[in-house]
Amino acid sequence: MIAHLLRRLLISLLLLAAMSFLTFWLMHATPGNFFDSLKLNPQISAQTIADYEKLYHLKDPLVVQYGHWLLNVCRGEFGYSFYYNVPAGHIIASRLWNTFILSLTSLLLTWGLAIPLGIWAALRHGRMADGVLSFLSFAAFSAPPFFLAMLLLYAVSQWGILPLGGMHSAGYDRMPFVDKLIDVARHLVIPAVVLSLASIASLQRLMRGNMLAQLRQQYILAARAKGLPETEVIYRHALRNAFNPMVTLLGYEFASLLSGAALVEIVCSWPGLGMLMLTAVRSKDVYVVMASMLMGGVLLLLGNLLADFLLVWVDPRIRYGAKK
Amino acid sequence: MSLLSIKNLTVTVKESKILNGVSLDIAQGMIIGIVGGSGSGKTTLGLSILKLLPQAMRQETGQITFAGRDIGACTAEQMRQLRGRDIGMVFQEPLTALDALFTIGSQMDETLAAHTDLEPQVRRQRIIETLHSVEIEDPQRIYGSYPHQLSGGLRQRAMIAQAIVCGPKLVIADEATSSLDVTIQAKIMQLLRKLNKERGMGILLISHDLGMVSHLADEIAVMQEGRIVEYGAAAEIINRPKHGYTKSLIEAY
Amino acid sequence: MHITLEAFGRHKAALACFWVLVALYAAAAFAPVLAPYHFADEERGYSYCPPTPVEFLDNGRLAAPFVYGRQLTFDENHRRVYLIDKTKKYPLRFLGGGRLFTVEEPGRLYILGADSRGRDLFSRLLYGARISLSIGLLGVLISFGLGLLIGGIAGYYGGVADAFLMRTCEMFMLVPGFYLMLALRSAVPDNFNSVQVYLMVVVILSLIGWASLARVIRGMALSLRERDYVSAAKLLGLPDMVIIVRHILPHTIAYSLVAIMLTIPGYILGEAGLSLLGLGIQDPVPSWGNLLSESMGIVHIPFAPWILLPGLFIFVTVVCFNVVGDALRDALDPMMKEI
Lengths: 324, 253, 339
Description:
The complex is a heterotrimer of chains A (324), B (253) and C (339). Chain A is mainly α and 324 residues long. Chain A has 14 helices and 2 strands; from the N terminus they run H-H-H-H-E-E-H-H-H-H-H-H-H-H-H-H. Chain A folds into 2 domains: 31-77, no CATH class; 91-314, Orthogonal Bundle (MetI-like fold). In chain A, 76% of the residues lie in helices and 1% in strands. In chain A, strands 1-2 form a two-stranded antiparallel sheet. In chain A, a hairpin with a 4-residue loop joins strand 1 and strand 2 (86-87). Chain A is globular. With 253 residues, chain B is α/β, with parallel strands linked by helices. In chain B, the strands form 2 sheets. Chain B has a 6-stranded mixed beta sheet, with helices on both faces. In chain B, strand 9 and strand 10 (227-233) form a beta hairpin. In chain B, helix 4 crosses helix 5 (120-133) and helix 4 (104-115) packs parallel to helix 7 (152-164). Chain C folds into 2 domains: 2-30 and 122-337, MetI-like fold (Orthogonal Bundle), CATH 1.10.3720; 36-118, no CATH class. Chain C has a 4-stranded antiparallel beta sheet with strand order 1-2-3-4. Chain C has 12 helices and 4 strands. Chains in contact: A-B, A-C. At the A-C interface, helix 1, helix 6, helix 7, helix 11 and helix 12 of A face helix 5, helix 6, helix 10 and helix 12 of C.
């Protein structure tokens, strides 16, 4: 099992490298780079620009540039952000953390709500409550997240109970620690809710479906036949079997949250990786784009590996294998 | 005294009758065979006793009395206590009848915990003893094993152990040996006979295999399309069958 | 297929959604006729003008439909207020200049209100529908073509080709979609004209989604190639490509149709997202996405709530595709839950 996971890791790393090279090539496929805008600035001498270009090997062939970049990445250096004027690594680290907070909160919200909802719906199968929830799920699943964010921000602007985007209120730095937590939490509400809604809807349906499928199985009949209390039958046996295959989703969810979060971050002005990527792309801040892509890819990779690992860990049939 | 008494049981699903006026009387400690083809209603009979009919089926008429208690009048909680503690059930395929995610030991333990107030160590002891009594050689290892880790025969013994761990007066064995090899079938049959003798435990042996049942059962009920078409001592049924269907069953084997 | 149509028809909600989609696409197709104005037709004096209802009663008497004039004033907070000027009546004109209905100059007809530059939202929604609805469809079709071809080849040949193609798929799937979209977008020069921008968005969208489709197709091809009719075809000496296209792919049609229906919403949302950020379809060409970008500055919404309408249209479209796709999946094969 470990061998299999290691092999997957290796292949994925290679693929990541391939993807990064593709991106690098794409970023340079269009004429012009960041320095073109600098060149228009009369205050910066031609010599300075020439020096910069030499420093970043900008005149070298593409493959060489990529080679330098890759080597630096292996050393933990992600290049320099021309736009922010700091090493790319720094700006990414802080934004990454913010995106991570948002994704994690969304993940907790999603799983915390969807699982109980799914079980609840399965136990009320065929009744009106189940139908209503189905309908609501459909609507939630189809609503464009950015639109929902706009609506919520608008609603909030009328009622004033939550901040209107961003991550910190004015005067954040002077707040005591607890107040800081509350402040961030208040800013988290809208983006986290918007991000979670679609996932809650689809996950809940999945949970419901799995529960219903399990409740039809023979071992559930057998459990009742041995006189187990109904709560044990449902929550100890059916639930665990229904939930098991979904554990892998945890990994994939985490990975896909990154992608989905980007647009919502932008609409809600949440200072995360998505926002960063956008400004970097707009200003052709090459190394930030590369590093963001890489970060996204790595997190996706970790998510997938986590999913694979969890799948093996929770199912004794795979973990221990069949012995005869 | 009769252990289990079924009077005029009719069970329907939609328009058709799965069981049509079935009556049966089982004395203590007897092994009764219920033999029939698919669709004869034999499995439904077993489920009716435990009041575990699928939602689509309904009991229209009939009265089932177990150890002097009217099953129909029992509340849900009373039925729950009855199941597993007084009546045990063994299913055909242990791989699907046991929860794949739990060890044998924990599945037997939860049965004991649901019906007794024994301490965990006492429960464990009891389980090991029960595993031993179903002729499992290494009970400690089996206690901690998962169903998929055991061979077919071992699994079925474990399931039997689970059914008898609370010391029930009656065990319903629904096609308990049908998915096993012939040689293992014979061993399991011997085991059932041993348990019947040692514990005075009644067995309701439900199967399609008349020949196999006749080796073990004291009396046999032959079922066809929801009715008992013939009933008698095992030897009688085998040597002097009266009903056409019984004869065809004998000829088939 | 007869059985499936019947089962599908029983699903009333899906049928209703289907017709809604047909109506939307029809409206998009006939936009130049249905829309009172061209999408770039500005009138700065009518910035954020509220919707102008069509009147049928003139002082209590029935009259031919017309619209009152609007007078722009400012209230004490320097905000725009449009007062209805009943002295000016502008009758509706039908089928004038190739459009179904317009209003006599200098009156303006704003069925759903105006944007910041006085452009009619209703017209822009109709023209925007052409872009948004077609891009999604085109993008999915291309993704599909790619996915079918690559998945079919990989599944059929197996071995090295399969390994290589699947690694490529994994590579594309390794990067979060939105990031990939942005990165691809950054590779495109900034001076594209509107047609090129349109094509660029289509290409970008299709490159995001083809990989997962290819994997599913490959799985199906793998299982299908063991079937007897494939062996028979091989024995007959048919070339491989013919076998793939004529014998394997048609059996994936059912799954493909459902997958297409359920993938289009993602593409519509993808285009909307890109355009919303100013990276997709550029002003003045409207798409539902860039129409929504006006709402990004939340400030305007309380005074001109109609600028949120494009989002509603996107929502309705996505819901309809999802409902139809779901019903189709149920009708085609109740046990086909993997898609």
